[in-house]
Write a structure and sequence with these properties.
The protein is an alpha/beta fold. It contains 14 helices and 9 strands. Helix 8 links the parallel strand 3 and strand 4. Bound molecules: iron/sulfur cluster. The site of iron/sulfur cluster has 11 residues, from loops.
Length: about 350
C-alpha cells in the first residue's frame, strides 16, 4: 500500500525537511569537476557523436568543468555558448599561421620567476597554474607554470623585487586562478603585500566566483575585509547565461567586503559575437554590481583559432553595442600585444558616455 501524508505529517514550508540539500564546500566542488568528455556529454544528454572530436582535442588541454557551471548549460544543445567554451574539439589541431603556444611572449623573459612586469607601476604575480575550469581559448593554455612559478609558490623573490621597486603601486594576482588557493595562503600573501608601504592596490583576476560562486565564503571575505589595500576583483565572464542568482549573490558578498568589481570578457565566435548577447552580458553584469571593463580580442594561442572574430567585425559589433547602451556599460574592445606596456584599445574611441558624466555630477 502506498504511504500517504496525513495532516500531522504536513510540514511548514520553512521546515528543515523542505530545505534544498546543502551544496558541497567549494573545495569539494573543485575536486569533483567533470574531467571526462563522456561524463560531460551524458550530463547534458548530448549525442556521443561529439566524442571523437572531444577525444581529439582533449590531449592538447585537459577538459575541466565544475558542475555548478555545467548546470547553466542547456541540455541537448551542442551549440550552447557555455559548453562551447569548455568542450574540446578536433578543430584545436588546426593552427593557421600566427597561432603560437606563447602568444604574448610571456615565457622565458628572464627576470624574477613568478613575476611578470610588463605594465608600468604594476606587478603581476603568477600565483598558481591551477584553474577551476579549463577555457579552450585561454592564452595561457600552454604556459609552463612549473617553470615560471619559481620558488615553489613561496613568492619570496617576487615580493622582494616588488618591495625594492618603489614605483610599484599595484600588485595583480593572476595564474591560473588565484582563488584556487586556500584562504590561509591567500590571506598570508595579502598581508605580505600590504606590508610593502608603496603598494596601495591589490587586483585579483579570477573566474572562480562565476564558475563556483560558493568560493566567495566567509573566509575569503574575512581577509578581503581586513586588508588596508584597495581591492579590485576582475571577473571573467563571457555570456549572460553565466550570471545566475548564485553569481549575483557572490558578487554582492564581495561588494559588501569592500571590493570593486570589474569584468573582462573575451570576444569568441559562436559564444558572444553578436550585439544582443553583448548587450545582455553588460546589463546582467551591471545588475550584479559588476562593471563591464574590457572585451578582449582573442589572443592567437595555438588550438583556439576557431574562436577568432576578425578585428573589423569586432569593431562593428562594438559600434552596435555603443549605439544601444550608455557608455559605462560599453566595454573597451582591446587587444594585447607582446612587448607593449599597455593594451591597445580599439573601440569605442571615447569610452565614457557624455550624458552619464553630466548626470553623475
Ligand atoms: S579560468 Fe582564466 S586562466 Fe583559467 S583556463 Fe580559463 S581563461 Fe585561462
Amino acid at each position: 500500500m502506498p504511504l500517504t501524508a496525513t495532516r500531522s505529517d504536513a510540514r511548514a514550508p520553512n521546515d528543515a525537511m523542505t530545505e534544498p540539500p546543502a551544496r558541497p564546500d567549494w573545495r569539494q566542488q573543485l575536486a569533483n569537476a567533470i574531467q571526462d568528455p563522456v561524463t560531460l556529454l551524458r550530463r547534458l544528454s548530448l549525442s556521443e557523436d561529439l566524442l571523437p572530436g572531444a577525444r581529439a582535442g582533449e590531449p592538447l588541454f585537459a577538459l575541466r568543468v565544475p558542475e555548478a557551471f555545467a548546470a547553466r548549460m542547456r541540455p541537448g544543445d551542442p551549440d550552447d555558448p557555455l559548453l562551447r567554451q569548455v568542450l574540446p574539439l578536433a578543430a584545436e589541431r588546426q593552427d593557421p599561421p600566427g597561432y603560437t603556444a606563447d602568444p604574448l611572449a610571456e615565457v622565458d623573459r628572464g627576470g624574477t620567476p613568478g613575476l611578470i612586469e610588463k605594465y608600468h607601476a604594476r606587478s603581476l604575480l603568477v600565483t598558481t597554474g591551477a584553474c577551476a575550469i579549463n577555457c579552450r581559448y585561454c592564452f595561457r593554455r600552454h604556459f609552463p607554470y612549473h617553470r615560471e612559478r619559481g620558488d615553489g609558490g613561496r613568492w619570496d623573490a617576487a615580493l622582494a623585487r616588488i618591495a625594492a621597486d618603489v614605483e610599484t603601486t599595484e600588485v595583480i594576482l593572476s595564474g591560473g586562478d588565484p582563488l584556487v588557493l586556500d584562504d590561509e595562503r591567500l590571506g598570508a600573501l595579502c598581508r605580505r603585500i600590504a606590508a610593502i608601504g608603496h603598494v596601495s592596490r591589490l587586483r585579483i583576476h579570477t573566474r572562480l566566483p562565476v564558475v563556483i560562486p560558493d568560493r566567495v565564503d566567509d573566509r575569503l571575505t574575512a581577509w578581503l575585509r581586513e586588508t588596508r589595500l584597495q581591492t579590485v576583483v576582475v571577473l571573467h565572464c563571457n555570456h549572460p547565461a553565466e550570471v545566475d542568482d548564485a553569481v549575483r549573490s557572490a558578487s554582492s558578498r564581495l561588494r559588501e567586503a569592500g571590493v570593486t568589481l570589474l569584468n573582462q570578457a573575451v570576444l569568441l565566435a559562436g559564444v558572444n559575437d553578436d550585439p544582443d548577447t553583448l548587450c545582455a552580458l553588460s546589463e546582467r553584469l551591471f545588475s550584479a554590481g559588476v562593471l563591464p571593463y574590457y572585451l578582449h580580442l582573442l589572443d592567437p594561442v595555438s588550438g583556439a583559432a576557431h574562436f577568432d572574430v576578425p578585428e573589423q567585425r569586432a569593431r562593428r559589433l562594438l559600434e552596435k553595442v555603443a549605439a544601444r547602451l550608455p557608455g559605462y556599460l560599453v566595454p573597451r574592445l582591446a587587444r594585447e600585444e607582446p612587448g607593449r606596456p599597455n593594451k591597445t584599445v580599439l573601440a569605442p574611441d571615447s569610452h565614457v558616455d557624455a550624458d552619464f558624466v553630466q548626470n553623475a555630477r
